[in-house]
Amino acid sequence: MKKTLTLNESELVGVINKIVESYNNDSYDDSDYIEVFLNFFRPWVKEKHGDEISNYPLSYLVKKYISEFVQDFEIDPTSTILGYRDNIRNVAAVGKALVQKGKTKLASLQSKEKFTEKYKKQLDFLVKKLELPDFIKLDFVEETPYNVIGRIRVDWEKLIKYPTNKTFRANDISRELKNKIENFLGVELGNPTYGQLSLTFNKAYVGVEDWVKKTLNKEIKKEIRSLPRASILHAIKFETNGDKFGGELKLSFKNWNGRNDFKKQVENLLQELGYNTKTLEVFT
User: Fold this and answer.
1) Nearest-CA neighbor of 260 among 282, 281, 278?
2) CA-CA distance, 184 to 168, in Å (whole number)?
3) Cα gap 93→87, rounded to integer Å
4) Which domain holds residue 157?
């Protein structure tokens, strides 16, 4: 059933302001906003308070007149005057508010063409050169030009059964692909506002929840608790790793005597079930 929300005028203005803020994906430095502020502030001081005062030290003028300035430009002081002793932050915040209100527009070197469209063939080639196993898939999302997110998707069950001593890490994939993009495509990484490429990565395991529910909880844990000396076992906890691909079975014990032998039994069991204990590790 659809719901109708009623907003008063101030609430509507707030929503519109948030949309305007979120729409501007350019990332500027505080120094850019400070320049905007100065372009408006000194002429305003000269107009309001005269030539002589406009030549006073900037730190004095900001402390004395910034509240009057934001009021004249209809800027919310609660979101811009961050501290009366913090001139730099205040000036940058007010400069940013001037841009958001449309008083001026900052120049941008950001490309109008999307990176993943311009370099589609080259990017596909560079991903192939990573020589990733078939259980690791890499694709890209680019909502605005040169703001690219690389999505690493890992088939969980294939990963933990893959026979290798190699350790796969998201940071390794990220670093290698970034190096290839810079070296082979000549694209500089950094801020899209400066004409550079922003490339970040996230990782997700595909099928891990089903494996935990159907295989780990219903089958593997039962087998572990059926091992000799399982009476010393207190609990079995499972966690996926962060940067490193894989997971951990963490065993806790009622009695620490014999824990190392029991850990070895669990590792042997997992190996008999086809799992790689370098990837699905056992810890005590």
Assistant:
1) 282
2) 23
3) 10
4) 115-206
List, for residues 240-282, the tens digit of each pLDDT value: 998 899 999 999 999 888 999 999 999 999 999 999 999 999 9
Is residue 105 one of the residues assigned to a domain?
Answer: no
Token output for 183: 């070296």
Query: Of the candidates 187, 223, 35, which has an alpha carbon nearest to the alpha carbon of residue 111?
Result: 187
The residue type of 247 is G
Our count of domains for the chain comes to: 3
How would residue 86 be classed by pLDDT, with cut points 50, 70 and 90?
Answer: confident
Q: Which residues pair with 236 in a beta bridge?
A: 251
Residue 100 to residue 33: CA distance in whole angstroms: 11
User: pLDDT tens digits for 158-191?
Assistant: 999 999 999 999 999 999 999 999 999 999 999 9
Residue at which a domain ends, from 100, 132, 167: 100
Residues 77, 58: Cα–Cα separation, whole Å: 19
Task: In whole angstroms, give the CA distance from residue 119 to residue 138.
Answer: 15
**Distance (Å, rounded) from C-alpha 158 to C-alpha 101?**
52
- Helix, strand, coil percentages (3-state) for the chain, rounded to 5, are 50, 20, 30
Q: What residues form DSSP beta bridges with 247?
A: 240, 280
Is residue 208 a contact partner of residue 156, using CB atoms and an 8 Å limit?
A: yes
HEC profile of 40-109: HHHHHHHHHHCHHHHCCCHHHHHHHHHHHHHHHCCCCHHHCCCCCCCHHHHHHHHHHHHHHCCCCCCCCC
Q: What is the DSSP letter of 197?
A: B
**Collapsing DSSP states into helix, strand and coil, what is residue 163?**
coil
Residue 177 belongs to a domain with what CATH number? 3.30.300
